[in-house]
Amino acid sequence: MLHRTIKLVYLVADARYFCTHRLPLAVEAKSHGFDVHVICPSDHTPHTTPSHSQQNESINAILKAGITLHNLPFNRRSLNPLMALCTIYKIACLYRCIKPDIAHHVAIKPVLFGTIAARFSDVPHIINAVAGLGHVFASKSWLLRPLRLMMRFLLRSQRVTTIVQNPEDQVELEALTRKPIHLILGAGVDTALFSPIKQKMPSETEALVITHASRLLWSKGVGELVEATKILRNQGYAIKTQIVGMPDDQNPDTIPTSTLQAWHDEGIISWLGYQQNMAPIYQNTDIAVLASYYREGIPKTLIEAASVGLPIVTTDMPGCRIIVNHQKNGILIPPRNTTALTDALKILIIQADLRHLYGKKGRDRVIEEFSSQIIYKKTIAVYERVMTTESIQMTSKP
């Protein structure tokens, strides 16, 4: 590496997401001598809603970690081109002020906006973390075709390094960009924090706990899980289904708060809202579920569940199937299939030994492939590689 302090800036659309998925990586980079900055919406807001409180907690956590924070209002839902240009201009202004050596963009919209801004403001190295191809690539809408074309153009740039989380996305983006794409399996998990605890065997009358955790979008399979819960209860199975997370008001696929509250009030599910620490929740869970048909990168919640030693029911979709080996550490089901979800849950509800076997194999797999130290080491190696390349190029000049 160059013998100077490297300035690294993360661009994300949400402070809460940064804290749950990238803050430990940023702290690790800081411990390696990087000067770390974060650009995201970071104005403290009055505690009028739970989401405002969570936003403030996330901002405080970033500041407490000793990371420099820059405020940027970011509307992830809007497709208004004037608003997009305004946001790109603001990012470019921040980049010209910060003068980063590396700009690390996380998720589709920050990748698009940040890459344009970085090119206009002469940021030498751009790292784009595409954490799942999501709505932009999964949707067939002609309105999103320009975004896909723009993505191809931007990611082809020689100063851009792209990271994806699963092999399917790697193959698709390599075909799109005609250049190598880095594969790093997710955001990592602290296997010491997310560790199994010895639990008593439930009695025949005690309800087994099923936990789903995600942004609360319909495409995450929440509706299918609610229907499966009703069916299983009608068949006499003692289960308690927990839904963890909050609606995403900037996503058109969000589940209305009124719907979630109604399910909770009727006793169909227990809606726990946003939970900053998922470890104790998973440690008191019997089965983890994510019946997603969203184009995931790798769901961090499933890595956490597997690390705790839980059997998993999830869909045979990119991102999800990389965590679960069918009938090895969980069960894969077809997406949008309530019957298959119900049947898979029934198998695990009935067979306690199978739950234990799947959980143990899942824990072993996380330690081998998904632990935070493995992921951080690979990501920081990407940072060092691009800077080393720059150093070689500079010293080779006559």
Describe it for me?
45% of the residues lie in helices and 15% in strands. The chain has helices at residues 15-21, 23-31, 50-64, 81-98, 108-120, 134-138, 145-155, 167-177, 222-234, 257-265, 279-283, 300-308, 338-350, 352-369, 372-396, and strands at residues 7-11, 35-40, 68-71, 102-106, 125-130, 160-164, 182-183, 208-213, 239-244, 270-273, 287-290, 312-315, 330-333. 44% of the residues are buried. The radius of gyration is 21 Å and the shape is globular.
Q: What's the short version?
A:
The protein is an alpha/beta fold. 44% of the residues are buried.
Secondary-structure topology with pairs:
Blueprint: E1 7-11, H1 15-21, H2 23-31, E2 35-40, H3 50-64, E3 68-71, H4 81-98, E4 102-106, H5 108-120, E5 125-130, H6 134-138, H7 145-155, E6 160-164, H8 167-177, E7 182-183, E8 208-213, H9 222-234, E9 239-244, H10 257-265, E10 270-273, H11 279-283, E11 287-290, H12 300-308, E12 312-315, E13 330-333, H13 338-350, H14 352-369, H15 372-396
Parallel strand pairs: 1-2, 1-4, 2-3, 4-5, 5-6, 6-7, 8-9, 8-11, 9-10, 11-12, 12-13
